[in-house]
Amino acid sequence: MTSHHDIHDNRIFHRECRSLVAAGYTVVLVAQHDRDEHYDGVRILGVPRYRNRLERVTLTAARVTWRALGTRATVYHFHDPELVPFALLLRLLGKQVVYDVHEDFVQAVAVRPWLPAMLRPLLSFAVRGINRLARAAFSIVVAERYYRRSFPGATEVLNYVEFEKYAAISKTSHHPPPARIRLLYTGSITESRGALNYLNLLDYLPDNAELHIIGQCNVDKTRNQLQDRAASDQRLRVTISAEWIPYTRICEAYEQRWLAGLAIFPNSEHYREKELTKFFEYMAAGLPIICSDFPAWRAVVAAHAVGICVDPDDPAAAGAAVSWLAAHPREAHAMGERGRHLVETRFNWASQADNLIAHYRHLGVYPNVALQ
User: Fold this and answer.
1) What angle do CA 237, 241, 243 make, to 5 degrees?
2) Is the four-CA dihedral 172, 173, 177, 182 of positive or negative sign?
3) Structural element, H or E, at residue 42
4) CA 306/CA 279 separation, integer angstroms
5) What's the distance, Cα to Cα, between the start and end of the chain in Å?
6) Which domains does the chain have, with CATH numbers?
């Protein structure tokens, strides 16, 4: 059940739903969609798309719950905090409920640009209360290790990538690197995820460099800043949409030659401890990483020698990291190869799918239990 995410969301559909189907479960996904259909073994029940955030957390959440209840499922697995009140109703009806925590929402409210600053402390307090309710009422799985501080005893189902999706890329060596400096950022595009840092980095790149930014940006000001700069600076190439961008488009980008993948986020409590899925995507594609020098990020990127960590407030340092990789192609290639090997052998979704299935079995929910 999701009131927010697209039906093709990587974690919800491509990883969790498809893995559960492969394990023999009957899976229904209730989400925003213009029709009901079956796709890759998953039965999809659509609800109308929300027109604004208020409608999402009220009417859309209610519609998702109503359609889900109609399936008479064995277990209800939901993904969005606005569904907590509705999931509590499911519990009162005696249903088995799993809450899949994607974010540290206590910290997330501090980096949401559409939230008034004066309301953020109040919302953070409210989220803490919701978390307490959730701990008491639901079975919990978390997408990040450190979320277990808020949800002790939760099962880790981490956002590692499906390495098989990168098999074709893995067979194509990224060595030698491209003749010109080509840098890539993929994913959600916001100031809190480094949009302005990438603009500043341009001032420290040579004239023949290219910086490609591909992803969703639903903040008009940020989107306009990037598009205006791209119009006047041929080194910046942007593929930006206010709507969701299919992951197939991201994978197409990974098939090209790049010097490095970027994740230079400003310092914030929300991102400081996260293990970005983006790291594992870059690694699976054989790309060295240039990222912010946060302790948790250093423990992935620097400790495994798959990239370079830099001060996010120092664009000159990021520029120097780019120059070093360009001047040391063998070392850059070795970083990419180490990253690819780590994803193939350790940081991959297969291990997390096992965790998810084990969690269901622990709840007494086994495969081949058809909907009534």
Assistant:
1) 160
2) positive
3) strand 42-47
4) 9
5) 18
6) 10-160+349-362 (3.40.50.2000), 163-345 (3.40.50.2000)
Contact 25, 48 (CB under 8 A): no
Amino acid identity for residue 1 in this structure: M
362 closest CA partner among 140, 71, 52, 48: 140
CA distances from 2 to 13, 155, 306, 367 (A): 11, 19, 34, 22
Instruction: Give which of 16, 43, 40, 39 is closest to 29, Cα–Cα.
Output: 43
Block residue for tokens 């997330």: 108
220-273 per-position pLDDT tens digit: 999 999 999 999 999 999 998 877 777 778 888 998 999 999 999 999 887 888
Predicted TM-score of the model (pTM): 0.87
Q: What are phi and psi of 359, to 5 degrees?
A: -65, -45
> Tens digit of pLDDT for each residue in 186-233?
999 999 999 999 999 999 999 999 999 999 998 899 999 999 999 999
Measured CA to CA, the distance from residue 264 to residue 259 in angstroms comes to 15
